Description:
- By secondary structure, the chain is of the alpha+beta class.
- The mean pLDDT is 91.
Amino acid sequence: MKKYLIVVLSLAVVLALNIYYRSYPIFLPQLKVQARNAVENGIVNAAKSEVNKKFPDYAPVIREGLAQALFSDYNRNNKKEIKKQVRDEYSRLKDAYQDKTGQTYLMELDGWHWGRYVNNVLRHGYPGDSIRGGLQFDEFMLAPTGTGLSWNNFFFYLSAFLYKAFSIFKPVPLATFLFYLPLFFTAVFIILLYLFCLQRWNNIVAVVACLVVGLSPIFITRSCAGWFDSDILNLTFPLLIIWFYLLAYERQPFKNGLPWIILSAFWVGLFCFSWINWWFIFIILIIYEIYSVINLTLVRWQYREDNLPLIKRHIITLCLFLFFSLGWVVIFSGLRPLMNLYGQIKGSLILNRALVYSIWPNVYSTVGELKRLAFSQVLHSLGGMFIFLSSMVSLLGLFLITARNPRYTVLQREAIIVLAFWFIAMLFACSNGIRFAMFLLIPLGIALGWGLSEVYLYFKRGRKWAVYILLAVILALSIKITRNAYYTAREVTPFMDDNWHKTLIAIKEKTPEDAIINSWWDFGDWFKVVAERRVIFDGQSQNSPRAYWMASVLISDKEEEAIAILRMLNNGGNRAFEIINKNFKDPFDAVMFLKKIISLNPKKAKIELYKALPHADAQEAIKIIFSRPAEAYFIVDYSMADKISPISFIGNWDFCKVYIIKNLGKKNKEEIVSVLKKNGVNSKLSERLYNEAELISETDTDDWLSKRITFKGDLVEGYLQGNLILFSNGVVYNPTQQEVHLYSGFDRKYKVPRSLFMLSRGRLKEITYPKNDLGFSILIFQDKGRYYSVALDRELARSLLVRLYFFGAKGLKHFQPFIENQEEGRMIRVFKINW
Length: 835
């Protein structure tokens, strides 16, 4: 009874800790600290202002002391008032992330999209908006054509089923249910992990594993309340697959293990039905079995062991696992996962490379969670260096000591081998993005718990004093883990806020239902779900040629060229390229021809199209490129300044350089240069690019293929002092002489920028400074009588993004201001596109 009581209490504690730190988004308690700091700063500033007003002639140090005394006196005598101010400020900060009912918005972007699919399941029984030719379609993605859904829809059906079941007892809005659903999934995962470790090992392993895995920074952020995504299931299914697979080896004779193989394969099929990258654990088990067969064969040959029955069992188990897994995959998801399997595995190896098998830029190479990061960042996401190294030492030590030690069961030896392969595979995957670090947690958590358990059992047999030291270490480790969880949880806030929500509702109310939203992909899910409008592309379709075209629009300094691209996108996405490429049968020739067509006037472009394409294809291409699209709107917002580096990298993609790199070594120089010349590139440039391609290293290829342009600082407001306008970023502007300087704190002197950009009567004027010290420019403009400045790359100053976001489309004829919202300096601007 005592043993069971300890188990129940231990499980309750780890479960409570996991749920508690994931519950921060419900009430956002971390904002109370911000509220208190804001109130205290306000009191301090008021005290300083009063002291400066009464005693302007006193020395600064005296005034500082008087202000501090006044602040302390106010705090002592007005505690109730201060508490009320803190409550009011906390309420104000919190309300910005919650709807009118007090419900916190869903945390990230994808969750809104998945929630729409769940709603579709509830409405008409399947996640898509419609069915075409037996395939489910999303009519809001990739406007105006829409796109077919993938096979991984279990998450939506499961969520819809759970919502229906919950609604029997307590009806709530779907968004509210989906906000809390991650807490339920987390509880299920922690219980399963606990029971797995308890069955295989003991309570120490179970507790440590649940703390290390559940309270790791990366897992908390991807499974907290409001994070409606399949991340938790993506850890749960591999755990079940491994658990049931190992149970098959525990059962004797072999026929008793067959049901567990079938059940393990069942979880593989369900995992495939849930996540597109289901195959990672499937591949790990195949590698494990191949290793086991080779290892046992070598042991048989070297030590003359009679292990042939065990070798046969591994081979038969592998064959049965493959057979049943593929069967369940086909039953749940059809043949598409198997048909796409090779391409998915190949694609995962080049996930964050800009140049892949296509001529188009790989957008994933610019996504933050898929970037190649320093190993220290991976360690931080897992809980820190100490936890990682302790887990690594445990994993390696257990792998070595269990190898041929009869004290350990066959199941324990097999388990550590599987965990080792799991760890190695996912450590490699981390090079393709920080998000994959989450999959390191299970092998590391179990290994650390198992290692500590082994040390505990060793000391318990004869060194009782060491047991207490070990328990103190475990306690310190638990404190470290919970501190990590606390600091992680308090940083979690929703992406959505009232400013965005108000804007999206206004779009929904003021635009036609068939309108199309044009913007960068990040907030496409919000446009589809809250504004209920179709989008050019979004987070689920970001890695498509549309990204190149939209990035080109944002950095373009020619309005007519930008509107031509937008017209093509809103009429048919990338369909014009597909038509041309079908006839040219060369993507490079096709994209270069299309870019030329877009730059021509309609009359000349139509002539070129009829010359190059069959009549029917030419007519379709002309319709896509030149017809008037449906009503459309363009959105720019405050976040785009920080995103301009990846946006410009995609938009500046050089197809000529791509062509050279892809054909280097396959064609000779004359052939490559000839193709470039045929597509309008002059001979000197063609030869120079070819020579550069021969010299460029593989690590520098991405930077050679494209160019990033950026803002060099934030937009700041200036103030008049004499004849000068002074800015807090160090810019000094003389409007009379039209001169500008930027103070360099490092060099302790004023420097001259490359040029000055000013907006005058709707036209952007540039003044260049031949004797400049800086490689970038300064943009200065007036808005409502106030001066503003921002440092930026020269190529960015005339871009459509700058002219829309900073100037509100002044001087542009195709963009009409439609909606504008601004809170605390965060501007969102919506423009109607005048075709």
